[in-house]
From TrEMBL:
Domain DUF3868: 53-107
Organism of origin: Phocaeicola sartorii
Signal peptide: 1-27
Keywords: Signal
Transmembrane segments: none
Taxonomic path: Bacteria, Pseudomonadati, Bacteroidota, Bacteroidia, Bacteroidales
Segments forming a coiled coil: none
Protein name, as recorded: DUF3868 domain-containing protein
Superkingdom of origin organism: Bacteria
Keyword Signal appears in the UniProt entry: yes
Amino acid sequence: MKNRINTSLSALAVLLCCGALTASAQAVSVQDASVQSLSGLKVSGATLTHTPEDSLSVLMTLDLSEVRPSSNRAVVLTPYVVHGTDSVELPSVGIYGRNRYLYYVREGKSQLTGASEHSFRVKDCPSSLPYTASVPYTGWMDGSELKITSRIYGCCSDILDEGSNLLASYTEPVKEIIWAPDLAYITPAAETVKSRDLQGRAYIDFPVNVTEIRADYRGNAVELAKIRATIDSVRQDKDITLTSLSIKGFASPEGSYAANERLARGRTLSLKSHVEKLYAFPKDFIKTSWEAEDWAGLREYVAGSSLKNRDAILAIIDGDLKPDAKEWKIRSTYPADYRTLLAEVYPGLRHSDYRVDYVIRQFSDVEEIRRLVVSDPQKLSLNEFYIAAQSYEAGSEDFIRVMETAVKVYPDDAVANLNAANAALLRKDAESAARYLQKAGDGPEAGKARKALEELRALGEN
């Protein structure tokens, strides 16, 4: 339904003066180009403003220097705000020729558009007129336009000519929604001893039935160098103290279990002796163990293979037969598959697994911890990461960076994931927050984060 409002002085504040709008306006839309109408009117600086008092304020400058109707004519300029079928007229400005003006004065009649009109006799009309008006703001004014109609009247109030010009448009600015989620971080427990380890696997080759290591045999030089590189990577660090080295040797299932037991034991002790010659480790620093046949490794391969008799071979591996009986049954029942295992799998089952255990010193100096977050985060405990984060403003880029670095170092820790989820929420990264919350546990703090995630998604973020 069309909503047209004819305003009066009681509904409008009209100031025809050289004043300016207050600086507290919420939004402004200006038509940059000047407009010239058929009546000779020129308009510049047209502005629509939604004020803090919830009014739509209009400001423009009317150049009336060329609006000069003849004695019996009048020009009426009527600004109005329109959006679709809704509109509101603003007080008009009338410029009257001499006879026309005197007629209204003598007869005591209102001007052409009523008492709200601001009227001028042509000889008294200013060349430039600042125009200000305001109306109560309503929702339809978002997206509205300011236009002005120029009408030229002859005698008997006949309209001889009229036209309308667009002056300005108004669109409500996008209001920033201030989102302040209720988040709770958890302070990670401090570690009394920061025990860590490095693990690796070496494939050292031995001639058949030989247990002594030959460093120049096949690829042994590379495999032995891997072990040494792992040890040296932490042994030479001033912040780290080595506590032990564990070596576990494995043989493959072909041959008798007793022979494989001897080979696994002998080759493990041989590797221990080789390492002892490289370092002056304390007595009992190197711990050894062995497993005669790596059936777990064999099963893992078979389960992921495309062997013709895969399921039957898995049933034998998982059965109750003794190791020698298992190996014989696979070899005799499925010879083609066994040849594949012997050539492609068994060599990889002869390996030495090693683990270097060490302790990292505690860090308490905030500046040092900050540096380690960037240079060597693996040395930090979760509690130390938290200390660094707390030294920054909550929600700052540095704060978020520390929390997200912590979860990279401790990807499966519930506290690390919760705090990283909170950090992701602060930067409105719903996708990352959801991923972290999968590992954040079910505590009340995680509940708050999940609620905040729902709110963020409802806002249309990410």
